[in-house]
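Following up on my earlier message about manganese (II) ion. Here are the inputs again, as you asked, copied directly from the submission form:
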Amino acid sequence: MKTTLITTAPALIETECLAVVALDHGEKDNNQPSVSPNDEILNKAASELFASGEAKGKMFEAVTLHRPAGLKAKRLLVIGGGKAKNFSSYESRKMAGTAVRFLKPKGIKSFAFVAPDMASGMADSVRSVVEGALVGDFDPDTYKSDRKDLSMQEMTVVAPASGDQKALQAALEQARIIGESQNFTRELVNEPGNRMTPTMLADRAKKMCEEVKSPHLKCEVLDGAKIRELKMGAFWSVSQGSDEPPALIVMTYTPPGAPAQPVLGLVGKGITFDSGGISIKPSDGMEKMKYDMAGGAAMIGAMRALALLQPKVKVIGIVCASENMPSGKAQKPGDVQIAMSGKSIEIINTDAEGRLVLADGLFYARQLGCTHLIDAATLTGACVVALGMINAGVFANDDAMYDRFRRALDRSGEKMWRLPLDPEYQEMIKSGIADIVNSGGRWGGAVTAAMFLKEFVDETPWIHLDIAGVAWMEENKSWIAKGPSGIAVRSLVEFVRGFAENGVPASSGRR
Ligand code: BES
Ligand code: MN
Ligand code: ZN
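Thanks, got it. Here's what our run produced:
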């Protein structure tokens, strides 16, 4: 989807469809919504829709008007944005996505979207509209033989001429990079296990690193032999049962002019299929476990965006890619494995494999010189039980890191909720034969999984994202298709950019 910015008065824009957001101002306007930004001609064109109550400004409500009076556009699409006082970039992203998904099946290939007013300013509005439209444009029907390409070809974002044009143009371009990177991640996650083996995931990462044409982004892939040579006993224990070889993907972004520190480590779980191994999963719903590489794919998408946005901060992206399969060579419950760090792990459940590959991935990131770590993983069903499919779980061993990440969430509009890492939970992962067990049992399962990872990050400031519940949309929404969500890409990018803009804060308040 091509995106362009114009400052023509909305009424004068010649387009297949002019989309606008209508906000509900409540009593103040006799309960009649109005278009944002308030535009006399647009409000007049929509006045009968508003007066009749056909358009109330209710969130996601979409009404089209053909040959709107006083406008050059062929159609006017009025999208409800809810209560004016609550309206922010979080909502406008969804408005733009809704517009794209409403128009696509009608065969409309280009449209214009009037960037709505919001307290955070017009650049933020433009940014959110572009991100939201790109997210809305993605559909996962890749292998349907009667697939019709319904994708939107062009969106024109309409902004007031009074704004800082350079800032608006920059916001649009950056948002395009971020939205496209999120969709790139979704493409990877959408692929089934037979079409996205660890080797194929590594090939896609390498190809991406070549395609962005940045001399500052490099990709290296370590194979099974190298993983064993590095003594990554936890990682290898997951891979040993599979005929498909594992891959440790290392993407290094070193921009010129970046300070020697911080070096951010982005570590992703890349299980391309999780059968559970010998502790095999029930077959009902097992097909979903193709998306168990969503954390890894998020890191590849984030590295793509960073190489294109070029913030001045060093970043290393690491993806631990493997299958988790049962076989005569597979690890067994009761086995003891030695991680790269030297810690011994008693395997209680071979289905708790994500933490095993990440244990070595996180430790390796530190060896490569990472001073700050962030990981993303579809790690536990327990996190889905705790937070449902709305919020991802966030864990942090450092409050300053968490504060930074919280700010990134505010910018990205992704929903995540902090969960605890109290030392008391450590009791739950003690082993009788080794240092730790790989499963703390049923209670607090998301926390004990995070506590397990914490053993391998030590004192390094670290954030862990459990995205099991939010990496896959179970249903179509008006603004996003059912299927891979691309969660975490936007937050990771904003988090890294925050480091480039504000330097490194003093670490504080470990947990
Ligand atoms: N990949 C799963 C977690 C998962 C569950 C992701 C649902 C997406 C949706 C993970 O490897 C797993 O199997 N975790 C186990 C851990 C348990 C054995 C300690 C779980 O959550 O049941
Ligand atoms: Mn598992
Ligand atoms: Zn898994």
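One observation from looking it over: The first strand starts at residue 2 and ends at 6. Hope that helps, and feel free to reply on this thread.
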